[in-house]
Design brief:
The protein has 408 residues and is mainly α. The protein has one domain: Up-down Bundle (Growth Hormone, Chain: A), CATH 1.20.1250.20. Helix content is 83%, strand content 0%. This is MFS family permease.
């Protein structure tokens, strides 16, 4: 019985292309989280400003919002495999430039922000191509929800390992080494992509104008209520709740009186919760009501943030940090799973571009807001308010998320 359950949990690994993708991405994502942690820490130690932390997130992610629609069209029009290969090479070059900038020891916060903005543009084309490409890697579409959940667990495992390594490397060797290791990590994902054997790409014979494709995608969202509601919930949470990560350097240095390693440990405990969440979702039975699970985990996210914000005893605070990671990742993963499963294959790239807008557009705006708010009421008060907001969002969507259960 246990063997069958374990096999069910990892059933997507039966697809060779997905195994390659998972392996390469696992290495690359660790490097990505090392770089994210390093950038935030460097900017904060240079400026000692919560607002600059918010601006860092804004600059790194808002370009993804601006260009995500073009990225979605590129994903639907062109070979997603080649688009993803190009974005990975471009991301590697960006990491190399960042490492060179820091190693030369002649850099300012604004130069780091500019390179972060370039990565945001790259991600605008990467995300809409990456997620739909998973569909092409999985031959049995019944394995798709499992593949998406495992993909989320891989990202979150990297979130566990990456910041912890980054904290140690920042203290021992400096930020430049973090950025260089991230650049090297892209070799793994590029090699995995080159080893894949995907079906021959057949381009669509008819190309519509970009404006027509954007209008068609928006009309599809309006007509598909399940996708529309999930995007609305994801957008609100990304704007008002998820940017709590922005203030973690302040907690590490001021509240817990630590250093870069402390910052890495906080991120890692959040990663522990996120990994547990992903494993849990991967093991969920296909007939499980994901909406009810989404509702419960949105509540968990809110309560855990409220508790984390007001405990200065580090070990206890880390328990609530892990719980916040669990709730956050469950919320995001379930929204993405429902959106992808319910999307028409021909519209999936554009749908994911709108999802990228909801996430990458709202999250950086929220980071600016939370950075400014924390300047007025302090970081603990700001995160406490975000926890309350999560509970309010759960209350707003309660009727929709519990509707299927009520029918049964």
């Amino acid at each position: 019985m246990k063997t069958e359950r374990l096999t069910s949990t990892f059933r997507a690994f039966g697809n060779r292309n997905y195994r390659l993708f998972f392996t390469g991405q696992s290495v690359s994502q660790i490097g990505t989280w090392m770089q994210r942690t390093g950038v935030s820490w460097v900017v904060y130690t240079m400026t000692h400003s919560a607002f600059m932390l918010g601006l860092t997130v804004f600059v790194s992610q808002f370009p993804s919002f601006l260009f995500s629609l073009l990225g979605g069209i590129a994903s639907d029009r062109y070979n997603r495999y080649k688009v993803l290969l190009i974005t990975q090479i471009a991301s590697m070059i960006q990491a190399v430039l960042l490492a060179v900038l820091v190693f030369t020891n002649h850099y300012t916060a604004w130069e780091i922000l500019i390179l972060s903005g370039i990565l945001g543009v790259i991600n605008a084309f990467d995300v809409p191509a990456r997620q739909p490409l998973i569909h092409e890697m999985v031959t049995d579409k019944a394995d798709l929800p499992n593949a998406l959940a495992l993909n989320s667990s891989m990202v979150n495992l990297a979130r566990l390992v990456g910041p912890a390594l980054s904290g140690i490397i920042l203290v021992k060797f400096g930020a430049g080494t973090c950025f260089l290791l991230n650049a090297i990590s892209f070799i793994a994902v590029i090699v995995s992509l080159l080893l894949m054997k995907l079906p021959v790409y057949i381009s669509a014979p008819v190309k519509k104008k970009i404006r027509s494709e954007l209008t068609e995608g928006f009309s599809y969202l309006k007509e598909t209520s399940s996708i529309r509601m999930m995007m609305l919930m994801l957008g609100l949470t990304s704007l008002l709740v998820l940017p709590y990560n922005t203030l973690l350097p302040v907690f590490a240095k001021v509240i817990f009186k630590g250093d870069a390693a402390t910052f890495g440990y906080i991120n890692s405990f959040i990663g522990v919760g996120a990994v547990l969440s992903s494993v849990y979702l991967a093991a969920v039975k296909p007939k499980a009501d994901l909406k009810v699970i989404l509702l419960i985990n949105t509540i968990i996210l809110g309560i855990s943030l409220m508790l984390f914000s007001h405990f200065s005893y580090f070990p206890l605070a880390m328990i609530f940090a892990a719980l916040s990671g669990f709730g956050m990742m469950s919320q995001t993963t379930i929204c993405l799973t429902i959106i992808q499963v319910d999307s028409d294959p021909k519209m999936r790239g554009r749908v994911m571009s709108y999802v990228a807008m909801a996430y990458f557009g709202m999250l950086p705006l929220g980071s600016l807001i939370i950075g400014a708010v924390s300047q007025k009421i302090g970081s603990p008060g700001a995160i406490f308010c975000q926890g309350i907001t999560s509970l309010v969002i759960a209350a707003i969507f309660y009727k929709y998320l519990s509707s299927d259960r009520q029918k049964n």
